[in-house]
Amino acid sequence: MNTIKMKTEVANCLTTVQLKNLFNNNTLLLRLPEFFDPFSCATLSQKIHQRMPLGFYENAPKIGRIGKAFYETISNPDSHDEYFQNSSQWIENLRKCCFPYISPIDALRVMLDDLWPKGSTVASLDGRRMFVGLARYFTSESSAEPHQDIIQRDAPGTDLSAKVQRQIAFNVYLTTPEYGGEIEIWDWIATQEDFYRFKDSRTDFAYAFDRTLIPEADLLIKPNTGDLILFNSNNVHAVTPSSDDRLSISCFIGYCGDDSPLVLWS
């Protein structure tokens, strides 16, 4: 059997063993179909578009987002302060927008509290509470180039980067395009040296690897509306161009040891 296929899994619910397999990279990707039902997805998507302001990544201007990713604040002190000043309000905005339905992030936190001995909590960085619950919006033909999400690179020398040993990405898909919008995953945790060696030279893609310099992805998965998908974000990953709108709610889940709470941030 193909070893990559063995490292992917489809399940009806999330278990502690599955979480540990993701953290340890024994599982490349886990899909929970219909984590949210179609009616809830349509309702949440409509309310989010109507009530929450859309912006675009400062470091990837073709990708829309509601809220702000911590990654964007790395080299911008003003953006860094804005992120922490607004983090609690952004969390509450998503919660209010989803009412009377539970927000995907609150659903995740309840699920993790049931699964993990020490439960879960919103991450703090040097005493400041982080944001969790980024809405990512891909319009027609927008995409994400091959990249990694690693807190040690995003926040080097901080208490959070010292504490988090591994991290996985959480995504719930509220709308998906008919064509495109697939997740590409490489069974490859690239080093910092690899990143600089294969880095994309284009200004708008400074976060990414140059596709022409790296192998093809090992895994291509098309999310369906309502799916929950988890994968180890240390692996190189990307999103292919979409034929239509693609909206997801996302965050990272950090592992700090079996006797510590899981920490969440976006």
Describe how the helices and strands are arranged.
Blueprint: H1 3-6, E1 8-10, H2 16-23, E2 29-32, H3 38-51, E3 55-56, E4 64-66, H4 77-98, H5 104-115, E5 120-122, E6 124-125, E7 128-129, E8 134-138, E9 144-147, H6 151-154, H7 159-163, E10 166-175, E11 183-185, H8 192-198, E12 219-221, E13 228-232, E14 237-239, E15 246-255, E16 262-265
Task: Briefly characterize the structure.
The chain is α+β, with helices and mostly antiparallel strands and 266 residues long. 29% of the residues lie in helices and 25% in strands.
Report on this model:
With 266 residues, the chain is α+β, with helices and mostly antiparallel strands. It has one domain: Jelly Rolls (Sandwich), CATH 2.60.120. It contains 8 helices and 16 strands. The strands form 3 sheets. Strands 1, 2, 3, 4, 5, 8, 10, 13, 15 and 16 form a 10-stranded mixed β-sheet that branches. Strands 9-14-11-12 form a 4-stranded antiparallel β-sheet, with no helix packed on it.
